[in-house]
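Support request from a user on the community tier.

User writes: "When I paste my structure tokens into the form, the page sometimes reloads and wipes my input. The last time it worked, I copied everything first. Here is what I submitted, just in case something in the input itself triggers the reload:"
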């Protein structure tokens, strides 16, 4: 194996709902959910059923043919957006952003505005949009023409967005950067600036999509509709699936042959995605996510070790007062709880939207115990 992830200490072999088991039989409460991917939990019966049925019937058709699942999912996504939408399916978030980047070139303009601290993926194109120098540095030269402005800073956007810009790409919440939430009204103002200056607005909803923040998309609370939306992570209900959605009439479109993906939108991943959406709808999981957010916040926000809890719905960043996030992650794992550190100070949690009140209490007691142990050792 390449050493790009470091050496993972835990090898997981089984999952059910909010729980996973490692190869020694140890059980963990999974509060990172495949990095915001397992929206309906592990081994959901509807997802299993849909995948099973589909793989028996037809596993792959390529992009030479259409398939009903892809069309049905595209229709579902259009309904979520609430306006005329065209969908390109791919397999990952990086590919979705690559597609957005390529489509922005069809405006005839080449300059792009992105934000400092953003994360848009690891391919050369997506990395060129990513505002994290440590991830970029070993791979320069990257694409020219991408300007990074401080996230959440509307003045900086006002200065940077000119009619010569092809596209602005921004996350509704910066997930990989530690769940950073922009000030109220930020996305709305960026939308207005893009409209006034004839610039496309792409919101990267890879991490904040699929109900994670209590609405289908992380930007809905500001009432904005982007021109381009990129999705992945939760979209496939645990299977690899990405999408780029173009909304309305302003976005140029690919001509036949200009873009593609052999596996993109394959019948099995789209079946899983459709099943996940149906589970989110029928179990009212977005409403539940907001309720669970409240109870998570109420149990951990006031702890001595916690500076602030930021985020929305079930994408939360717990900012610690001390640089001990990695120690806390290890102490949680010892106690059978999986969470993730995005930096020395920030713990990210992104449990499945199916998480219950009882599981939230289990999380709190394990998390608090881990925090206290690390504090006592420090
Ligand atoms: C994870 C992520 C990506 C990249 O997705 P991959 O599927 O890993 O390529 C892009 N944008 C955001 C906001 C993400 O969180």
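"...and here is what came back when it finally went through:"
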């Amino acid at each position: 194996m390449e050493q790009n992830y470091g050496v993972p200490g835990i090898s997981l072999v089984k999952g059910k709902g909010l729980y996973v088991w490692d190869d020694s039989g140890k059980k963990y409460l999974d509060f990172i959910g495949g990095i915001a991917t397992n929206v309906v939990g592990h081994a959901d019966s509807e997802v299993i059923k849909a995948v099973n049925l589909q793989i028996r019937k037809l596993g792959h058709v390529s992009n030479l043919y259409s398939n009903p699942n892809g069309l049905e999912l595209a229709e579902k996504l259009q309904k979520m957006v609430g306006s005329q939408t065209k969908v390109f399916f791919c397999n990952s978030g990086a590919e979705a952003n690559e597609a957005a980047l390529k489509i922005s070139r069809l405006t005839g303009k080449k300059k792009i505005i992105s934000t400092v601290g953003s994360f848009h993926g690891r391919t050369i194109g997506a990395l060129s949009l990513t505002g994290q120098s440590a991830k970029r540095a070993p791979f320069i030269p990257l694409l020219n023409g991408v300007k990074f402005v401080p996230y959440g800073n509307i003045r900086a956007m006002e200065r940077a967005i000119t009619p010569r810009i092809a596209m602005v790409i921004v996350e509704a919440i910066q997930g990989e950067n530690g769940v950073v939430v922009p000030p109220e009204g930020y996305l709305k103002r960026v939308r207005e600036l893009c409209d006034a200056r004839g610039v496309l607005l792409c919101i990267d909803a890879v991490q904040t999509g699929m109900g994670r923040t209590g609405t289908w998309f992380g930007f809905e609370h500001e009432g904005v509709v982007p021109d381009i939306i990129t999705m992945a992570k939760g979209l496939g209900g645990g299977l690899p699936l990405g999408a780029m959605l173009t909304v309305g009439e302003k976005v140029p479109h690919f001509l036949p042959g200009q873009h593609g993906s052999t596996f993109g939108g394959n019948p099995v991943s789209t079946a899983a995605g459709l099943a996940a959406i149906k589970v989110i709808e029928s179990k009212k999981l977005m409403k539940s996510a907001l309720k669970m957010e409240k109870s998570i916040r109420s149990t951990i926000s006031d702890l001595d070790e916690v500076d602030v809890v930021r985020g929305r719905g079930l994408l939360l960043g717990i900012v610690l007062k001390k640089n001990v996030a990695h120690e806390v992650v290890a102490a949680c794992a010892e106690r059978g709880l999986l969470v993730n550190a995005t930096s020395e100070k920030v713990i990210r949690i992104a449990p499945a939207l199916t998480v219950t009140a009882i599981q939230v209490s289990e999380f709190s007691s394990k998390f608090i115990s881990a925090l206290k142990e690390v504090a006592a050792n420090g």
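Agent notes: The reload is a front-end session timeout and is unrelated to the input. The CA atoms of residues 135 and 251 lie 30 Å apart. The chain is about 35% helix and 20% strand. Escalated to web team.
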